[in-house]
Amino acid sequence: MKGAVAIVAGALLLAEAQAAQASSGVVEWSIQKRRLPQELRKLRRRNGTFEETVTNENNRGGYFATCSVGSPAQHLTLQLDTGSSDIWVPDSSARVCTETGSGGCDFGTFNPAKSTSFEVVGKGDFEISYVDGSTSKGDYFTDVFQIGGATLQNMTMGLGLKTTIPYGLVGVGYALNEAIVGNTQSSSSAYPNLPVNMVNEGLINSVAYSLWLNDLDASAGNILFGGIDTGKYTGELTRMDIYPTQGVFTSFLVALTSLEATSPSGSDTLTAKEFPIPVVLDSGTTLSYLPTELAQQVWKEAGAIYSQQFDLAVIPCKMESSKGYFSFGFAGPNGPKIKVGMDELVLALTDGSPPVFNTGPYKGMDACEFGIQNFTSSPYLLGDTFLRSAYVVYDLANNQIAIAPTDFNSTKTNIVAFPSMSAAIPSATVAPDQSQVTDKPSVTSPAYAASPGFADSAGVKNAAPGLPSALGFAHGHSLGVESFEPAKMRVIRAVAALHSSRAVGTRQGVQHLRLGYRLVQDPVCSLPRWSSPSQVTGRRHFSASPLSRYAAASAAEDALKQAKELAASNMTAEAAAARMTPEEAKRLASVRNIGIAAHIDSGKTTVTERILYYTGRVNAIHEVRGRDGVGAKMDSMELERERGITIQSAATFADWTKKENGVDTKYHINLIDTPGHIDFTIEVERAMRVLDGAVMVLCAVSGVQSQTITVDRQMKRYNVPRISFVNKMDRMGANPFKAVEMINSKLKIPAAAIQIPIGAEKEFEGVVDLIDMKAIRNEGARGINLRISKEIPPELQELAQQKRQELIEKLADVDDEMAEMFLDEITPTPEQIKAAIRRATIALKFTPVLMGSALADKSVQPMLDAVCDYLPNPNDVPNNALDRSKGEQAVQLVPYNSLPFVGLAFKLEENPYGQLTYIRVYQGSLKKGTYLFNTRTDKKVRIPRIVRMHSNEMEDVAEIGAGEICAVFGVDCASGDTFTDGKLPYSMSSMYVPDAVMSLSIKPKKSSDADAFSKAMNRFMREDPTFRLHVDEESEETIISGMGELHLEVYVERLRREYKVDCEVGQPRVAYRETLSQRSDFDYLLRRQTGGPGDYARVVGWIEPNEENPETNKFESRVVGGNIPDKYISACSKGFDEVCEKGPLLGHRVIGASLVLTDGATHVTDSSDYAFSLATQMAFSKAFETAGGQVLEPLMKTTITAPAEFQGAILMLMNKRGTIVDTEVGAEEFTMVADCSLNAMFGFSTHLRAATQGKGEFSMEFSHYAPAPPHLQKELVAKYQKELAAKRTK
C-alpha cells in the first residue's frame, strides 16, 4: 500500500509538471501507470472540448484520474463513473481516512478548512447508500474544481464526512441520477453536474462526451468532454437511442440485439429468449453481465467454466492469446457491431500467484477470471471488458449513444467539437433499423462450431468433453472445494449480484475490483482473501434512489418493449403486470376501494356501520340519529347525528376475511360512505371519481328512487362497477324482485338476483344463495355468526331454481363464455357463474343483486363476500391521466409501487392539526417526508404526515401503496389537484361540479366576527366546490350559492357551531337569467371629451337570439373595408362578454344572445380599446330594450315520494308550483315528478312535512331555464329598478 501512495503522489506531481509545460489550447493530464510505466502521449484539445486522461488503476480496478478541489488546489485521485452523476470527495477527517489499520484514504482527501472558496449549500443533504450497506454521507458544497485543464468556479460536490469508502468519484451520468434527486424523490432537486456545468460555464457546447479506454494492457485512456476524437476508432461511428427507465433518462440503456462467436474453426449465432436485451454501458463496472442462458453459451464457446468457490466463471489464463472473439450487435439487424477479443476478456484473479487447476483438461494451468459473467435479471451491464473494445460517445442532450470499434493504442488524434447545444454527434450516422429493435430472433441452440477454434488457437485442450474438478494454489495450499459444475450455478439475485469472494492470492492487492477492499477470513479455506464491499465487481448501486438507473430490475426490459414508441413516458398495464412481483400482485388482488351510495334514507350509513362491526373495526353498533347518545361511527359531525342524515362523505378502512372451501382469504377494503341528499351531491361525485367499485343500496319497498337515478348517473360518468344491495327486507311491503326489475327498466343496466329471501317483512330470516344453492341465516348477538345449510326450505326450492335460471340467462346476454355454455345447454358450475358475474360487473355490463336488512343485522356478510368476489381491485379498472407534454394525450396509470407517483386530491377537510387532504394513490407509492409536485400550481410540497382515516379518527402510517386511499397533512392545494413526484408531466381530470341553483345574502351580525366569517367562508369553498361566494358589486352584499336550501342551511348552522358566528340571512336569490326574443338593430356613437384625449367609437349592427345554442352567447364580426381595425373588434367582443355578465333587466347573466357587428367608425386620436368596449356595452343595453328582453327562471326537476294516502294533498301543493311530468302509484306509496320554479320551492320542505305528517320526502336538481310568467317578470324588474333608484339617492 505504501508503494501505491508513493506512485499516486508522483503521478500528481507529474500531472502538474506536464500541465505547466502545455502550450496554449492544449489540455494534458496524465497519471503514471502502475504496472507498465511509460510516458503518456500528449493529447491536444480543440475549442469547445476538454480531455481527461484516465488510468485503469490496477490496485483498485476501474479508471481513475487526478483532479483538484478548492483554493488553493488540493489534489485527489477520483474514480471515473459514467453510471453515477455526483462528484464527491472524502473529507480529511472521515473515520475511514484517519483510523489506524484502515489503510487510509491514500488517493487523497479534501480539507474544507484549507479552501477559501468552500461553501456549504446543502447541510446534511448528501447521502448515498449501497446495497451492501456501505455509505457516504455529508454535505453538498460548492468550490473550485479542476479537471483536464478545465476550471469550474462554482461546482456542486458531495463531501463524505461519514464514509466507509476511502476514495471519491467523478460521476458524469444524467443529472436525474444524482443522490439528492433520489433522496428527495424530486427532479427539481437536480443541480448542474459536471457535464452540465461545463456547458453552463462555456467550456463545452453540448452535454456530451466520448470515452476511449484503450486495451487491457495499456490500462489508460481518455474522456473527451464536448467532442469526439475520430483518430481513436475505426469504421463508422453509429448513433442509437438511449431508452428511458420508467419514463425518465437516468442510465445509458441501449438495446443489445445480437451476439456472435467467431474463431478459426467457425462461427455461431448465440440466441436467448431475453433478446432484445436491455444493457447499460457503464465504465463503473469492471466486468460485463449477460442473461444466464446467454452467458452459458458464451462460456461454452470460450471454454470458461463456472466456479462455485468463486461464484464466477473462470478460464485458463493462456486463453488470452486465443484468436476467437465475440461480436456484440446493437439497435437492430444492421446496427453497429463491436468485436471483443479474448485478450480483453481474460483477467488476472490476483496480482500475485494465480490459482491453479488441479485436475481435468486444464490441470496445471493458471486460472483467470472471465470477463463475461451471468446475471439473473435485467438490466444487464456491459462494463470495461466490453468498453475497452468500443469507442463510445455519450450524448446526454439528445439521449443518444454513438459507438464504433476502438483503434487500440492509436497515436492519431483528430478532435471534433460539438458545434452547439443538442447538435447531432459529429461524424455519426443513425442506426438504420432501430424500429426493428423489438423483433425477437428465434431461439435455437448453437452448434458450437467456434468452440474448438477458441481453445486450439491458444494451445489449450477444449474443456467441453469434461470439466476440471478443482483448483488450488501451485505452492500446495489445499482448498478442499467442490468441483466446477457449470450446470449447477448458484442463483444470483438482482440486488446481491455476484458474490464478492473472487480474489484469492498471496499478495494484498486485487486487480479489476472497483471498490475498496477489506481483509476477511475465507470460511472454506481458512486463508485470507480480499473482499469487496460491493456485490457487483465494483458496481455501485444507489439503493436509496427510486430514480437510480436500476430502480427496479425489469424497468429496463419494459422500456425496450415500448421501443416502437421510443418516447413512451409510462409503461403499459401489460408490461407492469409482467414485471409485478408475486407479493405486489397479491397485495393488489386483495384491495377493494368501494363506496356506499343510495337514495335518501335507504340505509347507507346503517349498512356501513354493520360492515365496520363485522370486520372488527368497531366493537359496538350505534344507530343513525344518535338515539343512544353516540350515533353511527361514520356520522361524525354533530349536525349529522341530530338530523339523521349524512352531510359529508366519510372514509374508513377495514379487513374482511372471506371463507370459502375451507380457505381464509384476507381482503383490505377502503370504504367511503356518501350522502343521499342531492344538496350534497358533490360528496358523491368526488367519491365516485376515485373509487374502483360501489355498493348501490336500494330500499326493498321503494326500489329505484329519484336519487338512485342520480347516483346511477354518477357511477356511469366515472365508469364505476357496482353490486346492488336491496336493504330493508324486514319492512312491510318489501319486494326485492320489484327492485331488480326497476334496475333493469329505469337504470337501463342488466341486473339479476343472486339471492332470494327466506321469509319476508317481519318473517325475514336470511337468504338463499342461488350460485351455490345454500341457505344463509344470521345467528348470535347482532348476527355475528352465519349458519350455512345446503337444505333450502321446500317452499323456496322451485323459486330458487327459477331465479337461478334467470340469472344464467341474464349472464348469457352479457358474457360470451356464458352465452356459449347456454347455447350448448351446458349447466355452468358455481365457479363459472362467479367468474362470469365478475367479468360482466367489471365490464359495466351487469350488476348482481343481493338482499338483506342492515338494521336487523341480517345478510350483510354475504354482501361483503360479494364485494370481494365481484368488484374490481385497483389493477382491474383502467385509470387514465393526461400527458401535458403530448397535448393532454390519455395514458393509462398502473397501480405499481415502483413506478413514478401519481395521485389525486379529491377531498379537503379542516382539522385541528391543519388542512387534511384526501388522496387516491393511482401509481407509485407515497412515503412520509417525501416531496410531491402540484401539477396545477407547479409547487413542490413536502408530505410531513400520512394517515389512514376511520371516520374522524386517524391512524398514522409511514407509507401508502399504489391503489390505496389516504389523507395527508400540510399540503396546500384545492380539491381536484393532481400530485406527482416530478418525474411525469401528468395531470388527471377532476370531478364534475354542477352549477349552483340557489343563493342567499349573508353577513355576520357582529362586525367583530368578520375575521372568523372570512376564515370559515374560505374553508368551506376549499372543501366544497359547489359552495360559492361572491360580493355583489351593486348591492355590496355577500352572496353564498349552493345546491339547495338544505345545503346552504347546513353551512349557516356550521358557521354558528364551529366558528361561533351568528349571521343574518336574506331572502334567497334565485339564479335568474336574461335573454332576448327578437332582433334589434343598433347604430351607437360614443363621443366624449374630458379635457384631454377623449373617447370616440361608433358601432353598427344588431342583436338577436342565438338559435344555435340558447345556453351560450355568440359574437360575430362582419365588418369590411377596415372601418373598425381588428384590434378594436376584439375590444368589442370583450365588451359584449362584459355586458352579458350583468343584464339590463335584473342584473343577472344574459344567455342565448348573438351580437353581429357590421360597421363602425374610428377617430385618429380618441379611439381606443376602452372606447369600443364601452360603446358595445352601451349599444347592447339600448338595443336590448327593443329586443323583447325576457327573464328566465330555473326550473327544478322535483321528485316527491310519499305514502299513497297523501296523493291528493301533494297534487294541490304541486299545482301551485309547477307542471307535473309523471306520476307512479305503487301499493304503498306514490312518486311524482314535476318541473317546478325554484322561486316557488323555497320553504317547500316545511309544507311537504305538514301535508304528509312528516312521511313525504323530495329532492330537486336543476332541469333547465324557461321564461318566467309575465306577472313575475314585471314584479322582478320593478323590484330591481327600485333597488337601483334607492342606491342612486344614497
TrEMBL record:
Pathway: Protein biosynthesis; polypeptide chain elongation. GO terms for cellular component: mitochondrion. It comes from the Eukaryota. Belongs to the TRAFAC class translation factor GTPase superfamily. Classic translation factor GTPase family. EF-G/EF-2 subfamily. Belongs to the GTP-binding elongation factor family. EF-G/EF-2 subfamily. This is Elongation factor G, mitochondrial. SUPFAM superfamilies: Acid proteases, EF-G C-terminal domain-like, P-loop containing nucleoside triphosphate hydrolases, Ribosomal protein S5 domain 2-like, Translation proteins. GO terms for biological process: mitochondrial translational elongation; proteolysis. Residues 1-22 form the signal peptide. Residues 589-875 form the Tr-type G domain. The active site is at D81, D282. InterPro entries: Aspartic_peptidase_A1 (IPR001461), Aspartic_peptidase_AS (IPR001969), EFG_II (IPR041095), EFG_III (IPR009022), EFG_III/V (IPR035647), EFG_IV (IPR047872), EFG_V (IPR035649), EFG_V-like (IPR000640). The lineage of its organism: Eukaryota, Fungi, Dikarya, Ascomycota, Pezizomycotina. Gene3D superfamilies: 3.30.230.10, 3.30.70.240, Acid Proteases, Elongation Factor G (Translational Gtpase), domain 3, P-loop containing nucleotide triphosphate hydrolases, Translation factors. Catalyzes the GTP-dependent ribosomal translocation step during translation elongation. During this step, the ribosome changes from the pre-translocational (PRE) to the post-translocational (POST) state as the newly formed A-site-bound peptidyl-tRNA and P-site-bound deacylated tRNA move to the P and E sites, respectively. Catalyzes the coordinated movement of the two tRNA molecules, the mRNA and conformational changes in the ribosome. Keywords: Aspartyl protease, Elongation factor, GTP-binding, Hydrolase, Mitochondrion, Nucleotide-binding, Protease, Protein biosynthesis, Signal, Transit peptide. GTP binds at residues 598-605, 673-677, 727-730. NCBIfam families: EF-G, PRK12740.1-5, small_GTP. It comes from Echria macrotheca.
